[in-house]
Amino acid sequence: MPMADSISSEERCGAEEQKIPVISTALSRLQQVFGYQNFRQGQEEVIRSALEGRDSLVVMATGSGKSLCYQIPALCFPGLTLVISPLISLMKDQVDQLCANGVAADYLNSAQSFEQQQQVQNKAISGQLKLLYLSPEKVMTNGFFHFISQCRVDFIAIDEAHCISQWGHDFRPEYTRLGGLKACFANAPVMALTATADSSTRQDILRHLNLQRPYIYVGSFDRPNIRYTLVEKFKPMEQLCRFVAAQKGKSGIVYCNSRSKAERIAETLRKQGIAAAAYHAGLENGLRERVQQDFQRDNLQVVVATIAFGMGINKSNVRFVAHFDLSRSIEAYYQESGRAGRDDLAAEAVLFYDPADYAWLQRMIAEKEESPQRRIEQYKLEAIGEFAESQTCRRLVLLNYFGENRQTPCNNCDICLDPPKKYDGLLDAQKILSAIYRLGQRYGIQYVIAVLRGLQNQKIRENRHDSLSVYGIGRDKSKEYWQSVIRQLIHLGFIRQVFGDVGAVLQLTESARPVLRGEVALSLATPRLSSLPVLHRAQKYDYDKDLFARLRFLRKQIADKENIPPYIVFSDATLQEMSLHQPTSKSEMLQINGVGAIKWERFAQPFMSLIRQHKSARTEAKQPLRLEAPEGS
């Protein structure tokens, strides 16, 4: 699509001085190309700074329109924009979306053949491209600099910029070499972008990239459309299957911490009739790409991915993200859970938690050599542990971690919606502490509970623990009940878990003495034994649900015919807006967010026809029944 009114370097350099309204061209691009009527919070200021030739650091939550912050300037500059991104899958996805909007974009990466790379390079050299996506490894090669010296580069965007910092949750050494780009492209402004960066990470980004007099924008980290919920693990696989089944076919991602577990979870979900597949670095490339494509095209409901291997999927209609295992940092958890609800519609982020997961990660860190990086990892693990064990609003824990100081609860997390109920837990605590003491402080949680509940098993009989005074004193409560109480006593510092050759052993701390003696009062949270989080919520607005379902079906048909993911046709948010306003003319349709000029020409007609049919059918259904008198009456 030809782009008129590009901003020249002379206009850019003098814009601040002469107050040239460069933002009007940017707004025109937003409306005509992407179909959005207005900038979202922070976008206008960031885009203006780029068009005025300033470097910038942009920290915006996933789903806040971060990509548009560099895509809009790219359409305003006459030359080429380089976009550096660490994930091949995300590059392809974003290029597909840009091409669907009529934008000349392409990518270079190691998955392409030599001939394919040459074709892309020739398009860039001849000025046919507005945006070129690259990996950091590709940028640092001699061949790249020989090729790019033949292009006019006006702008550089570095996505996932937190990867440059050792404080970032996904540190990548190759990112640290990107600081040399300023010397090679002295006149091109550089924009660094990330969704997750605390203060230390932000300082590292500015320093390593050599950003000059940068405009710094740190937006809100709040994702109010996401409901954060923690579920205690009791029967985790069963709990996960019930949760996914309750989603009734909605798209979701399940994260876990090993390839074998990803395969096992995916197989279990398939046996439950759920379209699921594993996605991890151990898969053959072709299979991994097929899984990704099937997920993007809504042929798969769930992808089960390893935490260590980023999905990098720009899929807007992911309605839930479930963490089967604990993430290694709040940044990682925030970014992974943030892949839900990118369209700003209601979404779920559920963390299945067992303190043993935390203890295992802690042990992994302790086994590493002493270093500054190890201390950083330990600090970040402690922070995610505090988030998981918090008894206060989960959103406040996240926001305050990132320095966005808030005190008002969100009313959209498990703590706010179902506050912990307290009870006098002294007697329960004494039973548990006594059992641990009588067992010689040499056994783990499950064995202690088995003794408390008076189970008849071979190991208990062989150890003659069925003769202890504590044997069977907790048979009136379930295993899950005692698990919850033991975890609370661990959190409160009365019990510690010590890892040995036989696993995690429970031992008493000095703080346990006054509890055993009954010298202190002890309030505990009533154990939550439900397998499922609260899922019901009010919709954003009262759109026509029947029409929305029909529009989604039409979208899938069109997407399959065009061989593209459905959300590239129109997002769920756009279809909901169509279901609410029911546009039947071009002018009405172009007022719907997400319907730009190219998408109007390419996709809109069938949707308007369906809306007309739906309105006509509804009108006929509302007509009063007319009874005609019989002949001869």
UniProtKB/TrEMBL annotation:
<keyword id="KW-0234">DNA repair</keyword>
<keyword id="KW-0378">Hydrolase</keyword>
<keyword id="KW-0233">DNA recombination</keyword>
<feature type="domain" description="HRDC">
    <location>
        <begin position="541"/>
        <end position="621"/>
    </location>
</feature>
<dbReference type="Pfam" id="PF00270">
    <property type="entry name" value="DEAD"/>
</dbReference>
<comment type="function">
    <text>An ATP-dependent DNA helicase which unwinds DNA in a 3'-5' direction. Plays a role in recombination.</text>
</comment>
<keyword id="KW-0238">DNA-binding</keyword>
<dbReference type="InterPro" id="IPR004589">
    <property type="entry name" value="DNA_helicase_ATP-dep_RecQ"/>
</dbReference>
<dbReference type="InterPro" id="IPR006293">
    <property type="entry name" value="DNA_helicase_ATP-dep_RecQ_bac"/>
</dbReference>
<dbReference type="InterPro" id="IPR018982">
    <property type="entry name" value="RQC_domain"/>
</dbReference>
<keyword id="KW-0547">Nucleotide-binding</keyword>
<keyword id="KW-0067">ATP-binding</keyword>
<dbReference type="Pfam" id="PF16124">
    <property type="entry name" value="RecQ_Zn_bind"/>
</dbReference>
<dbReference type="GO" id="GO:0006281">
    <property type="term" value="P:DNA repair"/>
</dbReference>
<dbReference type="GO" id="GO:0030894">
    <property type="term" value="C:replisome"/>
</dbReference>
<dbReference type="GO" id="GO:0009432">
    <property type="term" value="P:SOS response"/>
</dbReference>
<feature type="domain" description="Helicase ATP-binding">
    <location>
        <begin position="47"/>
        <end position="215"/>
    </location>
</feature>
<keyword id="KW-0862">Zinc</keyword>
<dbReference type="InterPro" id="IPR032284">
    <property type="entry name" value="RecQ_Zn-bd"/>
</dbReference>
<dbReference type="Pfam" id="PF00271">
    <property type="entry name" value="Helicase_C"/>
</dbReference>
<dbReference type="InterPro" id="IPR044876">
    <property type="entry name" value="HRDC_dom_sf"/>
</dbReference>
<comment type="similarity">
    <text>Belongs to the helicase family. RecQ subfamily.</text>
</comment>
<dbReference type="GO" id="GO:0005737">
    <property type="term" value="C:cytoplasm"/>
</dbReference>
<dbReference type="Pfam" id="PF09382">
    <property type="entry name" value="RQC"/>
</dbReference>
<dbReference type="GO" id="GO:0016787">
    <property type="term" value="F:hydrolase activity"/>
</dbReference>
<dbReference type="InterPro" id="IPR001650">
    <property type="entry name" value="Helicase_C-like"/>
</dbReference>
<dbReference type="GO" id="GO:0005524">
    <property type="term" value="F:ATP binding"/>
</dbReference>
<dbReference type="GO" id="GO:0043138">
    <property type="term" value="F:3'-5' DNA helicase activity"/>
</dbReference>
<dbReference type="GO" id="GO:0043590">
    <property type="term" value="C:bacterial nucleoid"/>
</dbReference>
<dbReference type="InterPro" id="IPR014001">
    <property type="entry name" value="Helicase_ATP-bd"/>
</dbReference>
<dbReference type="GO" id="GO:0003677">
    <property type="term" value="F:DNA binding"/>
</dbReference>
<protein>
    <recommendedName>
        <fullName>DNA helicase RecQ</fullName>
        <ecNumber>5.6.2.4</ecNumber>
    </recommendedName>
</protein>
<keyword id="KW-0347">Helicase</keyword>
<dbReference type="GO" id="GO:0006260">
    <property type="term" value="P:DNA replication"/>
</dbReference>
<dbReference type="InterPro" id="IPR010997">
    <property type="entry name" value="HRDC-like_sf"/>
</dbReference>
<dbReference type="InterPro" id="IPR027417">
    <property type="entry name" value="P-loop_NTPase"/>
</dbReference>
<dbReference type="GO" id="GO:0006310">
    <property type="term" value="P:DNA recombination"/>
</dbReference>
<dbReference type="GO" id="GO:0046872">
    <property type="term" value="F:metal ion binding"/>
</dbReference>
<keyword id="KW-0227">DNA damage</keyword>
<keyword id="KW-0479">Metal-binding</keyword>
<dbReference type="InterPro" id="IPR011545">
    <property type="entry name" value="DEAD/DEAH_box_helicase_dom"/>
</dbReference>
<dbReference type="InterPro" id="IPR002121">
    <property type="entry name" value="HRDC_dom"/>
</dbReference>
